[in-house]
Design a protein that fits this description.
Number of helices: 11
Low-confidence stretches: 4-58, 83-95, 244-250
Number of strands: 19
Order of helices and strands: EEEEEEEEEEEHEEEEEHHEEHEHHHHHHH
Structural class: alpha+beta
Radius of gyration: 25 Å
């Protein structure tokens, strides 16, 4: 999530412990209700949830993206299929989703067409039996609205509330939503987002990690609303976990969502708005593989790349935050406090890793340094991920502690060459 301190932006990511995918549980009554709490995005517009009523005891479990419902006589597999079409990068106004329910009778059992027709699918515009698959019914759900609700954090204690949202624009890569109370800023949001595909998305996709697509709609939601005080943006990782929804997380936000504070739309320039977006987008791609200190350093590295695109030399606010703290050398960057100094040192550490490798292989190296760190992080701790990368590219004998000690010396010495500097980049000579 991004924190605001005066004109200085910082952010934080809301982390939650992952929930396991469902363990099968048998219904205790003769009628079982199977709930689908995940958001189905009909054209990215209308969240939909349904309760199927089965008149015999069942159990149910999820194997993403399919819900299985099992009885003594058959297993039903429920999956979703997008039925809409695209024209260029624009969606046709009406797009539908199909719920395809395939019944597989168990040994010795049968299921007739009449039995299939007895299953009523609520809220469907139409329900049909597929003649090519006699044990399959298809329920079609049309897009109905350009508005929806988001569950939003209203303070830093975990309090949430639903906020009405209006669709501002949709491209092949984003859905841009704004809280209804800020509808007057919708045009400004669309304008500020115009460079997204050219300037923001490639930074994260090409240098950090591919974006996930848990809701299978190919887009990232950018939702602009009034966030808690001093927060410029955040990502909530439970939004990307189907398990959280299968186990009852009360939110319609399932999917990749970046939350941005509406005050950023009041600025003349779109720089700070997009600086927050790219920072949060790295968090989406990171998927919490990295520990907070490294995750934030990588997001600030993404912002650094964007700053360079805008003709800046780096993130000046991080230099200022570092220089302004008496304890700047006493604080270990790998211990996360969530304050301005934590962001600054995580940023500087990520830049030190980059410049050390570029010093050896060239500034325009094709080495995807941050992507390799994230990939390594999937298999171990963040310190282990850094260690594997520096051993691969710098010294096979390196330990993390040795490399980190050199980083702290670089903050003080800022040598133009060698291990105690940032490869001579003048921007970091401002460090005090």
């Amino acid at each position: 999530m991004l924190r605001r301190s005066n004109s200085f932006l910082k952010h934080f990511v809301v982390l939650v412990a992952p929930l396991l995918l469902v363990a099968p549980s048998f219904a205790s009554a003769n009628t079982a209700h199977v709930s689908l709490p995940l958001k189905i995005k009909t054209g990215g517009l209308t969240p939909w949830a349904a309760t199927y009523t089965w008149n015999i005891p069942v159990r149910q479990w999820y194997v993403h993206p399919t819900l299985f419902v099992e009885s003594e006589k058959w297993t039903a597999a429920i999956r979703w299929e997008r039925a809409g079409a695209r024209l260029g990068i624009e969606w046709f106004p009406l797009e539908t989703h199909n719920a395809i329910i395939t019944f597989t009778p168990k040994r010795g059992s049968t299921m007739t067409t009449e039995q299939l027709q007895s299953f009523v699918v609520p809220n469907a515009a139409s329900v049909a039996i597929d003649p090519t698959r006699p044990q399959t019914i298809i329920a079609t759900f049309p897009q109905t609205s350009n508005t929806k609700q988001y569950r939003l954090f209203t303070d830093l204690n975990g309090t949430t509330a639903l906020r009405e949202a209006t669709l501002v624009a949709r491209t092949h890569s984003t859905e841009q939503w704004i809280a209804t109370t800020h509808n007057g800023l919708g045009t400004k949001l669309a304008q500020m987002m115009q460079p997204y595909d050219q300037d923001i998305l490639p930074i994260v996709r090409d240098h950090f990690a591919p974006l996930p697509d848990v809701d299978e709609n190919g887009t990232v939601d950018v939702f602009v609303a009034t966030l808690p005080e001093n927060i410029a943006g955040y990502v909530y990782y439970a939004d990307q976990w189907l398990s959280a929804y299968a186990q009852g997380w009360n939110s319609p936000n399932f999917g990749e969502t970046v939350y941005i504070d509406a005050s950023l739309l009041n600025r003349t320039s779109n720089y700070m708005f997009l600086r927050v977006v790219v920072h949060e987008l790295q968090h989406v791609a990171n998927r919490s593989y990295s520990d907070s200190w490294l995750n934030e350093g990588l997001s600030e590295a993404a912002s650094h790349m964007y700053a360079l695109k805008r003709g800046l030399s780096g993130l000046q606010e991080n230099i200022n935050a570092f220089n302004g703290r008496a304890d700047r050398f006493a604080r270990n960057a790998t211990i996360w406090y969530g304050d301005e100094l934590s962001y600054a040192k995580s940023y500087l550490f990520a830049q030190y890793v980059r410049t050390r490798i570029e010093a050896k292989y060239g500034k325009n190296t094709n080495i995807r340094i941050f992507n390799e760190i994230i990939t390594a992080d999937m298999a171990g701790s963040s310190k282990q991920a850094i260690t594997s990368v520096i051993r691969k590219y710098l010294n096979p004998q390196y330990t993390f502690d040795q490399f980190y000690t050199e980083f702290e010396q670089a903050l003080k010495k800022k040598d133009a060459t060698g291990i105690y500097g940032f490869n001579g980049e003048p921007f970091f000579n401002q460090l005090r």
